[in-house]
Write a structure and sequence with these properties.
about 280 residues; alpha/beta; TIM Barrel; DNA polymerase, domain 1; 8-stranded mixed beta sheet; 8 strands; about 40% helix; about 15% strand; globular; binds adenosine monophosphate; binds fe (iii) ion; binds zinc ion
Length: about 280
């Protein structure tokens, strides 16, 4: 069994349509794949309709959250949610708020770039996102198309990372509230790439303990952005706190170089997620 529990489609900032992503997953030999677009469940119905036979699809999402340390500015944290009720009203409202935040913040970044002479326009970003959830990768691709940088990675390394003068924050969900919403909707919350230091500051173990008190059920341990020692630390923490352990690629099509299935989840851990998720069921034969 080959199980990848974290992928993105064109519904957010990936480059494969949901149907293409599932075909890619099957061709790569995966048995189970989760679709976890940022802040939306808009890809779920297409995934259910276009699922290739033999492939199990886990409806999920990656929620943009923040942890508020006592003595520092907030830290961005990502929360994976699986098998929740997509119609839970408070959760529906929070996702809509996050998508609005993304629009306002994306526009701020693009306008700051344009004011300094970079050839990017907000209308082009909206067009590139094709009605999906806007993220910095859309701005990155526009910068590549305009010849400003030679790759999406280069755009992040120079103009779009959190240290860039063009970076703008968005008001993401308090992670404890995010966890509570996923649980209230019958879902399974898993802390995504918790020690991915290249993305910015990361939280300490105290935050993970607080997240568990709020209802967190798992940690994403095997992730392309985690070094060996970071994986070992998270694996030990998960054992101490009796958490589910996952592994996934965080596939984004050609917006990243990571292939689908690059990291994987053990079948027993996947079964623990299915057993805990009561908001909806995986799409399977
Ligand atoms: P945003 O959600 O708008 O804050 O943008 C964050 C997203 O950018 C992440 O979900 C990744 O998909 C993507 N990202 C971050 N760093 C990189 C990078 N170095 N290369 C490609 N994509 C990246
Ligand atoms: Fe992303
Ligand atoms: Fe993430
Ligand atoms: Zn992701």
């Amino acid at each position: 069994m080959r199980i990848d529990l974290h992928t993105h489609s064109t519904v957010s900032d990936g480059t494969d349509s949901p149907a293409e992503l599932l075909a890619t997953a099957r061709a790569a030999g995966l048995d189970v794949v989760a679709l976890t677009d940022h802040d939306t469940t808009a890809g779920w119905s297409v995934a259910e309709e276009t699922r290739p036979p033999g492939l199990t699809v886990v409806p999920g999402m990656e929620l943009s959250c923040r942890w508020f340390p006592a003595d520092q500015p907030p830290i961005s944290v990502h929360l994976l949610g699986y098998l929740f009720d997509p119609l839970h009203p408070a959760f529906v409202a929070e996702r809509a708020r996050l998508r609005d935040e993304r629009l306002a913040r994306g526009q701020r970044i693009v306008e700051a770039l344009a004011a300094d002479g970079y050839p990017v326009q907000w209308a082009e970003i909206v067009e590139r996102s094709a009605g999906g959830v806007v993220g910095r990768p859309h701005i990155a691709r526009a910068l590549v198309a305009a010849g400003v940088v030679d790759s999406v990675d280069h755009a992040f390394a120079t103009l779009l990372n959190h240290r860039s003068p063009y970076y703008a924050r968005k008001a993401d969900t308090d992670v404890r509230e995010g966890i509570a919403l996923v649980r209230a909707a019958g879902g399974v919350p898993v802390f995504a790439h918790g020690l991915a230091t290249k993305r910015g500051r990361v939280v300490g173990d105290d935050a993970v303990v607080a997240m568990v008190e709020a209802g967190l059920l798992g940690l994403e341990v095997d992730h392309p952005d985690h070094a060996e020692d970071e994986r070992a630390h998270l694996r030990a923490l998960a054992a101490d706190l009796h958490l589910i352990v996952t592994g996934s690629s965080d596939y984004h099509g050609t917006n990243k170089t990571t292939p689908i299935g690059a990291c994987a989840t053990d079948p027993e851990q996947f079964e623990a997620i299915v057993a805990a998720g009561t908001g909806c069921a995986p799409y399977r034969d």
